Protein backbone atom coordinates (compact mmCIF):
# COMPACT_ATOMS: atom_id res chain seq x y z
CA UNK A 1 0.00 0.00 0.00
CA UNK A 2 1.27 3.45 -0.79
CA UNK A 3 1.02 5.98 2.00
CA UNK A 4 -1.29 8.89 1.43
CA UNK A 5 0.61 12.03 0.65
CA UNK A 6 -0.27 15.68 0.24
CA UNK A 7 -0.31 16.85 -3.36
CA UNK A 8 -0.57 20.43 -4.58
CA UNK A 9 -0.37 22.07 -7.96
CA UNK A 10 -1.63 25.12 -9.79
CA UNK A 11 -2.35 26.43 -13.26
CA UNK A 12 -2.61 30.04 -14.32
CA UNK A 13 -5.91 31.38 -15.63
CA UNK A 14 -4.21 33.29 -18.44
CA UNK A 15 -5.34 32.47 -21.95
CA UNK A 16 -6.65 29.07 -22.85
CA UNK A 17 -5.21 25.79 -21.60
CA UNK A 18 -3.24 23.78 -24.12
CA UNK A 19 -2.65 20.13 -24.80
CA UNK A 20 0.74 20.75 -23.14
CA UNK A 21 -0.95 21.75 -19.86
CA UNK A 22 -3.16 18.71 -20.11
CA UNK A 23 -0.46 16.15 -20.85
CA UNK A 24 2.26 17.69 -18.70
CA UNK A 25 0.18 18.49 -15.64
CA UNK A 26 -3.57 17.87 -15.57
CA UNK A 27 -3.44 14.20 -16.50
CA UNK A 28 -1.32 13.63 -13.43
CA UNK A 29 -3.62 15.75 -11.25
CA UNK A 30 -6.34 13.28 -12.14
CA UNK A 31 -4.15 10.21 -11.73
CA UNK A 32 -3.10 11.22 -8.21
CA UNK A 33 -6.50 12.23 -6.83
CA UNK A 34 -7.68 8.85 -5.56
CA UNK A 35 -4.57 7.84 -3.68
CA UNK A 36 -3.54 11.14 -2.21
CA UNK A 37 -4.84 14.20 -0.45
CA UNK A 38 -4.91 16.64 -3.38
CA UNK A 39 -5.19 20.42 -3.63
CA UNK A 40 -5.42 21.94 -7.11
CA UNK A 41 -5.76 25.63 -7.55
CA UNK A 42 -6.17 28.26 -10.18
CA UNK A 43 -3.34 30.69 -9.50
CA UNK A 44 -4.96 34.03 -10.17
CA UNK A 45 -2.44 35.88 -7.98
CA UNK A 46 0.27 34.58 -10.30
CA UNK A 47 -1.66 35.55 -13.43
CA UNK A 48 -1.57 39.24 -12.47
CA UNK A 49 2.24 39.30 -12.64
CA UNK A 50 1.51 40.35 -16.23
CA UNK A 51 -1.34 42.80 -16.97
CA UNK A 52 -4.80 41.18 -17.09
CA UNK A 53 -8.10 42.58 -18.25
CA UNK A 54 -10.54 42.15 -15.31
CA UNK A 55 -13.40 40.72 -17.35
CA UNK A 56 -11.07 38.30 -19.12
CA UNK A 57 -9.48 37.22 -15.83
CA UNK A 58 -12.91 36.48 -14.37
CA UNK A 59 -13.96 34.46 -17.39
CA UNK A 60 -10.69 32.56 -17.63
CA UNK A 61 -10.71 31.72 -13.92
CA UNK A 62 -14.10 30.12 -14.21
CA UNK A 63 -13.13 28.41 -17.45
CA UNK A 64 -10.00 26.83 -15.97
CA UNK A 65 -11.90 25.65 -12.90
CA UNK A 66 -14.50 24.03 -15.18
CA UNK A 67 -11.71 22.46 -17.26
CA UNK A 68 -10.24 20.89 -14.13
CA UNK A 69 -13.53 19.12 -13.49
CA UNK A 70 -14.10 18.33 -17.18
CA UNK A 71 -10.64 16.74 -17.35
CA UNK A 72 -11.68 14.29 -14.65
CA UNK A 73 -11.00 15.93 -11.30
CA UNK A 74 -13.63 14.92 -8.79
CA UNK A 75 -14.37 17.75 -6.33
CA UNK A 76 -15.30 15.22 -3.66
CA UNK A 77 -11.80 13.73 -3.94
CA UNK A 78 -9.63 16.76 -4.62
CA UNK A 79 -10.00 20.32 -3.37
CA UNK A 80 -10.29 22.72 -6.30
CA UNK A 81 -10.01 26.40 -5.42
CA UNK A 82 -8.92 29.88 -6.40
CA UNK A 83 -5.60 31.00 -4.96
CA UNK A 84 -7.07 34.44 -4.12
CA UNK A 85 -9.75 32.79 -1.96
CA UNK A 86 -7.06 31.69 0.47
CA UNK A 87 -5.42 34.83 1.89
CA UNK A 88 -2.56 32.83 3.45
CA UNK A 89 -0.91 32.53 0.00
CA UNK A 90 -0.23 36.25 -0.26
CA UNK A 91 0.90 36.41 3.35
CA UNK A 92 3.30 33.47 3.31
CA UNK A 93 4.42 34.70 -0.11
CA UNK A 94 5.64 37.90 1.51
CA UNK A 95 7.33 36.09 4.39
CA UNK A 96 9.22 33.88 1.95
CA UNK A 97 10.07 36.80 -0.34
CA UNK A 98 12.08 38.26 2.53
CA UNK A 99 14.05 35.00 2.71
CA UNK A 100 14.71 34.67 -1.03
CA UNK A 101 17.96 36.03 -2.46
CA UNK A 102 17.98 38.37 -5.45
CA UNK A 103 20.54 36.12 -7.12
CA UNK A 104 18.21 33.14 -6.88
CA UNK A 105 15.42 35.05 -8.59
CA UNK A 106 17.74 36.48 -11.24
CA UNK A 107 18.65 32.95 -12.30
CA UNK A 108 15.05 31.89 -13.01
CA UNK A 109 14.67 31.13 -16.70
CA UNK A 110 10.91 31.80 -16.70
CA UNK A 111 11.59 35.34 -15.47
CA UNK A 112 14.26 35.84 -18.10
CA UNK A 113 11.91 34.59 -20.85
CA UNK A 114 8.92 36.63 -19.73
CA UNK A 115 10.81 39.85 -19.12
CA UNK A 116 13.09 39.74 -22.15
CA UNK A 117 12.77 42.77 -24.38
CA UNK A 118 10.07 44.35 -22.19
CA UNK A 119 10.49 47.92 -21.05
CA UNK A 120 8.30 47.83 -17.95
CA UNK A 121 8.52 44.62 -15.96
CA UNK A 122 6.42 44.35 -12.81
CA UNK A 123 8.25 43.45 -9.59
CA UNK A 124 5.66 40.70 -9.08
CA UNK A 125 7.03 38.83 -12.07
CA UNK A 126 10.43 38.84 -10.39
CA UNK A 127 9.26 37.60 -6.97
CA UNK A 128 6.76 35.14 -8.45
CA UNK A 129 8.82 32.07 -7.46
CA UNK A 130 8.60 33.01 -3.77
CA UNK A 131 4.81 33.08 -4.06
CA UNK A 132 4.88 29.71 -5.80
CA UNK A 133 6.99 28.34 -2.95
CA UNK A 134 4.39 29.66 -0.49
CA UNK A 135 1.64 27.90 -2.47
CA UNK A 136 3.37 24.58 -2.08
CA UNK A 137 4.72 24.93 1.46
CA UNK A 138 1.40 26.11 2.93
CA UNK A 139 -0.06 22.64 2.35
CA UNK A 140 3.04 20.81 3.55
CA UNK A 141 2.89 19.13 0.14
CA UNK A 142 5.01 16.08 -0.56
CA UNK A 143 4.38 15.90 -4.28
CA UNK A 144 3.96 18.63 -6.87
CA UNK A 145 2.78 17.43 -10.30
CA UNK A 146 4.11 19.85 -12.93
CA UNK A 147 5.64 19.93 -16.39
CA UNK A 148 9.36 20.12 -16.94
CA UNK A 149 9.46 23.94 -17.13
CA UNK A 150 8.64 24.24 -13.41
CA UNK A 151 11.62 22.20 -12.21
CA UNK A 152 13.69 25.27 -11.39
CA UNK A 153 10.89 26.82 -9.35
CA UNK A 154 10.53 23.57 -7.45
CA UNK A 155 14.24 23.57 -6.67
CA UNK A 156 13.94 27.04 -5.19
CA UNK A 157 10.92 25.92 -3.16
CA UNK A 158 12.97 23.05 -1.74
CA UNK A 159 15.82 25.42 -0.90
CA UNK A 160 13.45 27.86 0.83
CA UNK A 161 11.84 25.09 2.89
CA UNK A 162 15.29 23.89 3.96
CA UNK A 163 16.42 27.44 4.74
CA UNK A 164 13.33 28.09 6.83
CA UNK A 165 13.68 24.85 8.80
CA UNK A 166 17.37 25.54 9.37
CA UNK A 167 16.75 29.06 10.67
CA UNK A 168 13.57 28.56 12.64
CA UNK A 169 13.27 24.83 13.37
CA UNK A 170 11.53 21.99 11.50
CA UNK A 171 8.29 23.54 10.31
CA UNK A 172 7.93 22.97 6.57
CA UNK A 173 7.93 19.85 4.39
CA UNK A 174 10.54 19.74 1.59
CA UNK A 175 8.48 18.77 -1.51
CA UNK A 176 9.37 16.55 -4.47
CA UNK A 177 8.52 17.38 -8.07
CA UNK A 178 6.29 14.83 -9.81
CA UNK A 179 7.18 15.13 -13.48
CA UNK A 180 5.90 12.65 -16.08
CA UNK A 181 8.52 10.55 -17.89
CA UNK A 182 6.80 11.06 -21.24
CA UNK A 183 5.05 14.31 -22.05
CA UNK A 184 6.67 16.62 -19.49
CA UNK A 185 7.50 18.98 -22.31
CA UNK A 186 5.12 19.06 -25.24
CA UNK A 187 6.65 21.16 -27.95
CA UNK A 188 5.23 23.75 -30.28
CA UNK A 189 3.66 22.42 -33.51
CA UNK A 190 5.62 24.89 -35.64
CA UNK A 191 8.97 24.51 -33.90
CA UNK A 192 9.99 21.56 -31.74
CA UNK A 193 12.75 23.57 -30.08
CA UNK A 194 10.14 25.65 -28.23
CA UNK A 195 7.59 24.41 -25.70
CA UNK A 196 3.93 24.52 -26.66
CA UNK A 197 2.63 27.68 -25.05
CA UNK A 198 -0.71 29.48 -24.95
CA UNK A 199 1.12 32.81 -25.10
CA UNK A 200 2.62 32.11 -28.53
CA UNK A 201 1.57 34.68 -31.16
CA UNK A 202 1.02 31.85 -33.67
CA UNK A 203 -2.27 30.13 -32.75
CA UNK A 204 -1.33 27.31 -35.10
CA UNK A 205 1.54 26.34 -32.81
CA UNK A 206 -0.67 25.08 -29.99
CA UNK A 207 -3.85 23.09 -29.54
CA UNK A 208 -6.20 24.28 -26.82
CA UNK A 209 -8.47 21.94 -24.91
CA UNK A 210 -11.49 23.72 -26.39
CA UNK A 211 -10.41 23.80 -30.04
CA UNK A 212 -13.09 22.42 -32.38
CA UNK A 213 -12.42 19.14 -34.24
CA UNK A 214 -11.85 21.10 -37.45
CA UNK A 215 -9.39 23.47 -35.80
CA UNK A 216 -7.50 20.47 -34.41
CA UNK A 217 -7.41 18.76 -37.82
CA UNK A 218 -6.19 21.93 -39.49
CA UNK A 219 -3.45 22.57 -36.92
CA UNK A 220 -2.18 19.01 -37.04
CA UNK A 221 -2.20 18.84 -40.83
CA UNK A 222 -0.05 21.99 -40.86
CA UNK A 223 2.25 20.85 -38.06
CA UNK A 224 5.91 20.84 -39.02
CA UNK A 225 7.57 17.50 -39.76
CA UNK A 226 11.21 16.53 -40.29
CA UNK A 227 13.09 15.51 -43.40
CA UNK A 228 12.48 11.96 -44.60
CA UNK A 229 9.19 10.11 -44.27
CA UNK A 230 9.58 7.53 -41.50
CA UNK A 231 7.55 7.78 -38.31
CA UNK A 232 10.41 7.22 -35.86
CA UNK A 233 10.89 8.36 -32.28
CA UNK A 234 14.29 10.06 -32.35
CA UNK A 235 14.34 13.36 -30.48
CA UNK A 236 17.80 14.30 -31.77
CA UNK A 237 17.22 13.74 -35.47
CA UNK A 238 13.45 13.88 -35.71
CA UNK A 239 12.33 16.37 -33.07
CA UNK A 240 9.10 17.41 -34.79
CA UNK A 241 7.83 13.89 -35.47
CA UNK A 242 8.94 12.71 -32.02
CA UNK A 243 6.84 15.47 -30.45
CA UNK A 244 3.80 14.45 -32.52
CA UNK A 245 4.38 10.82 -31.52
CA UNK A 246 4.46 11.83 -27.85
CA UNK A 247 1.11 13.57 -28.26
CA UNK A 248 -0.27 10.49 -30.03
CA UNK A 249 0.97 8.20 -27.25
CA UNK A 250 -0.40 10.38 -24.47
CA UNK A 251 -3.81 10.82 -26.10
CA UNK A 252 -4.28 7.19 -27.17
CA UNK A 253 -2.59 5.25 -24.37
CA UNK A 254 -0.41 3.44 -26.95
CA UNK A 255 3.33 3.09 -26.55
CA UNK A 256 5.80 4.79 -28.88
CA UNK A 257 6.85 1.34 -30.16
CA UNK A 258 3.27 0.45 -31.06
CA UNK A 259 2.86 3.71 -32.93
CA UNK A 260 6.14 3.21 -34.76
CA UNK A 261 5.06 -0.29 -35.80
CA UNK A 262 1.62 0.86 -36.97
CA UNK A 263 3.03 3.50 -39.32
CA UNK A 264 6.02 1.63 -40.62
CA UNK A 265 6.32 2.34 -44.33
CA UNK A 266 3.31 4.65 -44.35
CA UNK A 267 4.86 8.11 -44.19
CA UNK A 268 3.82 11.22 -42.32
CA UNK A 269 0.50 11.81 -44.11
CA UNK A 270 -1.34 8.79 -42.75
CA UNK A 271 0.18 9.31 -39.30
CA UNK A 272 -0.91 12.94 -39.06
CA UNK A 273 -4.41 12.15 -40.26
CA UNK A 274 -4.84 9.53 -37.53
CA UNK A 275 -3.16 11.74 -34.93
CA UNK A 276 -5.79 14.42 -35.52
CA UNK A 277 -8.55 11.89 -34.86
CA UNK A 278 -6.79 10.58 -31.76
CA UNK A 279 -6.60 14.11 -30.32
CA UNK A 280 -10.19 14.92 -31.32
CA UNK A 281 -11.39 11.75 -29.60
CA UNK A 282 -9.34 12.35 -26.47
CA UNK A 283 -10.77 15.86 -26.10
CA UNK A 284 -14.36 15.10 -27.07
CA UNK A 285 -15.56 13.85 -23.64
CA UNK A 286 -13.73 16.67 -21.90
CA UNK A 287 -15.35 19.27 -24.14
CA UNK A 288 -18.87 17.98 -23.69
CA UNK A 289 -18.43 17.78 -19.92
CA UNK A 290 -17.04 21.29 -19.95
CA UNK A 291 -20.18 22.64 -21.62
CA UNK A 292 -22.41 20.92 -19.07
CA UNK A 293 -20.45 22.25 -16.11
CA UNK A 294 -20.43 25.81 -17.41
CA UNK A 295 -24.16 25.66 -18.08
CA UNK A 296 -24.93 24.26 -14.62
CA UNK A 297 -23.18 27.04 -12.72
CA UNK A 298 -21.99 24.46 -10.17
CA UNK A 299 -18.41 25.67 -10.39
CA UNK A 300 -19.03 28.41 -7.82
CA UNK A 301 -20.14 25.87 -5.27
CA UNK A 302 -17.14 23.63 -6.03
CA UNK A 303 -14.75 26.55 -5.60
CA UNK A 304 -16.34 27.63 -2.34
CA UNK A 305 -16.02 24.18 -0.82
CA UNK A 306 -12.49 23.80 -2.13
CA UNK A 307 -11.45 27.13 -0.61
CA UNK A 308 -12.91 26.16 2.74
CA UNK A 309 -10.85 23.00 2.89
CA UNK A 310 -7.75 24.79 1.63
CA UNK A 311 -8.11 27.62 4.17
CA UNK A 312 -8.34 25.16 7.03
CA UNK A 313 -4.99 23.59 6.14
CA UNK A 314 -3.25 26.80 5.08
CA UNK A 315 -4.16 28.77 8.22
CA UNK A 316 -2.55 26.19 10.49
CA UNK A 317 0.75 26.26 8.58
CA UNK A 318 0.77 30.05 8.42
CA UNK A 319 0.20 30.32 12.16
CA UNK A 320 3.05 27.91 12.88
CA UNK A 321 5.36 29.69 10.46
CA UNK A 322 4.68 33.07 12.05
CA UNK A 323 5.14 31.71 15.53
CA UNK A 324 8.46 30.11 14.55
CA UNK A 325 9.64 33.42 13.06
CA UNK A 326 8.85 35.32 16.23
CA UNK A 327 5.69 37.20 15.34
CA UNK A 328 3.68 38.04 18.41
CA UNK A 329 0.56 35.85 18.52
CA UNK A 330 -2.77 37.65 18.40
CA UNK A 331 -4.17 37.78 21.92
CA UNK A 332 -7.27 35.69 22.53
CA UNK A 333 -9.33 34.44 25.40
P1 LIG B 1 1.00 27.30 -16.90
O1 LIG B 1 0.09 27.28 -18.07
O2 LIG B 1 2.29 27.99 -17.18
O3 LIG B 1 0.32 27.76 -15.64
O4 LIG B 1 1.39 25.79 -16.66
C1 LIG B 1 0.58 24.91 -15.96
C2 LIG B 1 1.20 23.53 -15.91
O5 LIG B 1 1.29 22.98 -17.22
C3 LIG B 1 2.62 23.52 -15.35
O6 LIG B 1 2.79 22.38 -14.55
C4 LIG B 1 3.49 23.43 -16.58
O7 LIG B 1 4.71 22.81 -16.32
C5 LIG B 1 2.62 22.58 -17.48
N1 LIG B 1 2.91 22.86 -18.91
C6 LIG B 1 2.75 24.06 -19.54
N2 LIG B 1 3.13 23.96 -20.83
C7 LIG B 1 3.54 22.67 -21.02
C8 LIG B 1 4.05 21.95 -22.14
N3 LIG B 1 4.21 22.53 -23.33
N4 LIG B 1 4.38 20.64 -21.96
C9 LIG B 1 4.21 20.04 -20.76
N5 LIG B 1 3.74 20.67 -19.66
C10 LIG B 1 3.40 21.97 -19.78
N1 LIG C 1 4.33 28.58 -11.82
C1 LIG C 1 3.40 27.62 -12.34
C2 LIG C 1 3.31 27.77 -13.87
O1 LIG C 1 3.58 28.80 -14.41
C3 LIG C 1 2.04 27.76 -11.74
C4 LIG C 1 2.07 27.58 -10.26
C5 LIG C 1 1.88 28.54 -9.33
C6 LIG C 1 2.26 26.35 -9.57
N2 LIG C 1 1.94 28.01 -8.09
C7 LIG C 1 2.18 26.68 -8.18
C8 LIG C 1 2.53 25.05 -9.95
C9 LIG C 1 2.34 25.72 -7.19
C10 LIG C 1 2.69 24.09 -8.95
C11 LIG C 1 2.59 24.42 -7.58
O2 LIG C 1 2.93 26.84 -14.50
At a glance:
This protein has helices at residues 19-32, 44-47, 54-70, 88-97, 102-106, 109-115, 123-138, 151-168, 213-222, 239-252, 256-262, 267-296, 299-325, and strands at 6-11, 37-42, 78-82, 143-145, 176-178, 187-188, 191-195. The protein is mainly alpha-helical and 333 residues long. The chain is globular, with a radius of gyration of 21 Å.
Bound molecules: adenosine monophosphate, tryptophan
According to CATH, the fold-level topology of the largest domain is: Rossmann fold
> How far is the N terminus from the C terminus?
44 Å
Q: H/E order of the elements?
A: EHEHHEHHHHEHEEEHHHHH
CATH superfamily of the largest domain: HUPs
Text of the CATH class of the largest domain? Alpha Beta
Inertia-based shape: globular
Task: Determine the number of helices (DSSP H or I, runs of at least 4 residues).
Answer: 13
E-strand count? 7
Give, in spatial order, the strands making up the sheet with the most strands.
Answer: 1-2-3
Q: Please report which band the strand proportion falls in: under 5%, 5-15%, 15-25%, 25-35%, 35-45% or over 45%.
A: 5-15%
Main beta-sheet annotation: 3 strands, parallel
> CATH architecture of the largest domain, please?
3-Layer(aba) Sandwich
Q: What does the average pLDDT come to?
A: 96
Look at the helices and sheets and give the structural class: mainly alpha
Features of the shown structure:
binds tryptophan, three-stranded parallel β-sheet, 7 strands, single chain, Rossmann fold, globular, binds adenosine monophosphate, 333 residues, Tyrosyl-Transfer RNA Synthetase, mainly alpha, two-stranded parallel sheet, 13 helices
Amino acid sequence: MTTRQRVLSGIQPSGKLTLGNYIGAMKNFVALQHEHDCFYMIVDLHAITVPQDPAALREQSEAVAALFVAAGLDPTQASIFMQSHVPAHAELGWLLTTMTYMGELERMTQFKDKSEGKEAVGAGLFVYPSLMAADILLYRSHLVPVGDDQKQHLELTRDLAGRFNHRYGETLVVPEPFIPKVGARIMSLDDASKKMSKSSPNAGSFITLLDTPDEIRKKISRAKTDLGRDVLFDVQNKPEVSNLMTIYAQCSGQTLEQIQATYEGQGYGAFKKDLAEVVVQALEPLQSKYKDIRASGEIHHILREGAERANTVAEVTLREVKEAMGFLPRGGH
